[in-house]
Amino acid sequence: MTRPLRVKLVEVGPRDGLQNEQQIVPTAIKIELIERLADAGLVAIEATSFVSPRWVPQMADSAEVLRALLASPRRRPAVSYPVLTPNLKGFDAAVEAGAQEVAIFAAASETFSQKNINCSIGESLKRYAAVVDSASALEIKIRGYVSCVVACPYEGAVDPARTAWVARQLYDMGCHEISLGDTIGAGTPTSVQRMIEVCAALVPIERLAGHYHDTYGMAVANVYASLELGMAVFDSSIAGLGGCPYAPGASGNVATEDVVFLLHGLGIETGVDRDKLLAAGEFISLYLGRDYRRRAARNKALALECHSQPGTVQ
């Protein structure tokens, strides 16, 4: 299997990243972040989540965010803003706000499914069938997520066959893309490749995406391992924002900046302007009061320093 020549990145920072923040981020900051990410060339930006604000207060302004983006004079027609809709109520609210693509999520771990959405895997799939039917009737695209594809914080290692079965159920429902999430970042290139191979036997590889957390520093290596199998879609989060409140110990998603650095280094096209991307990462990091210390950002700073010093070895 040859590596792809071009990769699509699905930016999940505004939703999957910010929902894990304790401080409420103002609507205007969320919109500006998403606009900057679009300006940087990202064509799929998960904008928000239509969930109960009682459970996820950070997403209480979901309708306001989506409406503003769709009406923005800066809007680029090629950019999509998928939103998470865990049930019919959330789906209906998303449609009312103008959603043109929605996402649903299941788990490959029974215990995680219970902890995350208070139902079994089978029950969650039945629940989503109604969402998918409604979306299909309105010609709204549906993306599927599978959590704990390699390991679960409660059950340990997850059988790749179980992950593949859940992915196939979502595919058969009508999800155009299935994102395979290493929720606790326990995957290694070997375990991730094994999981992808089993999944790809049931779902076409071009319909699969990698979603890797960086708990053990393996996320970029896992992206590379996935590329070797021909995977051409990856989820990533600006400044590595994220985590999971139902997965103890899970750190942020792989940073978009680091994935772009890898891909461009391999000669793989992304359509992303790295300088604008780094500026977006700095913007949200400054707002959250954090040092912007992504590896790719540090590398750029070091490179600029070296170029400014005469006699520095290049």
Short synopsis of the structure:
The chain has 314 residues and is of the alpha/beta class. It is 43% helix and 14% strand.
Features:
314 residues, alpha/beta, TIM Barrel, nine-stranded parallel β-sheet, two-stranded antiparallel ribbon, 11 strands, globular
Describe the structure.
The chain is 43% helix and 14% strand. The chain has a single domain, classed as TIM Barrel (Alpha-Beta Barrel). Helix 6 packs parallel to helix 7. The protein has helices at 13-17, 27-39, 62-71, 88-96, 110-117, 121-137, 160-173, 189-200, 219-227, 256-265, 274-288, 295-307, and strands at residues 8-11, 44-45, 48-49, 83-84, 101-107, 141-147, 151-152, 156-157, 177-182, 208-212, 233-236. The protein starts with 7 loop residues before the first strand and ends in a 7-residue tail after the last helix. The chain is built from twelve helices and eleven strands.
